[in-house]
Amino acid sequence: MFIHKRHSFDSSQVMYRAQELLDAAANRYRITVQVANRAKRRRYEEFDSIDDPAMKPTVRAIIEMSDELTQPEIISDN
User: Fold this and answer.
1) Can you give the residue range of the structural domain that contains 32?
2) What's the number of domains the chain is made of?
């Protein structure tokens, strides 16, 4: 019997956060590249870690960056 694991994130929430990032950015291309670079970096940094295998690196990057946008007390690595 195969049990589906419920994702710890809502796709509509990810879309909302991505739109927040795009709205706050002066340059849509630049923010897109920053998300891609962070996702790539996180993918290689956490290759051995099994933090949340259901969450793709790009989704994790969007969530992290939107948190940094809405919570300035979080230290940014941009």
Assistant:
1) 11-70
2) 1
Of the candidates 48, 51, 47, the one whose C-alpha atom is nearest the C-alpha of residue 64 is 51
How many C-beta atoms surround the C-beta of residue 42 within 10 A? 17
Residue 25, classed as helix, strand or coil, is coil
CA distances from 30 to 21, 37, 46 (A): 11, 10, 24
Let me know if residue 2 belongs to a domain: no
User: Do the beta carbons of residue 31 and residue 9 sit within 8 Å?
Assistant: no
- Cα–Cα distance measured from residue 77 to residue 73, given in angstroms and rounded to the nearest whole number: 12
Least confident of 21-25, 29-33, 55-59, 73-77: 73-77
Residue 24: inside a domain: yes
Q: Is residue 76 part of a domain?
A: no
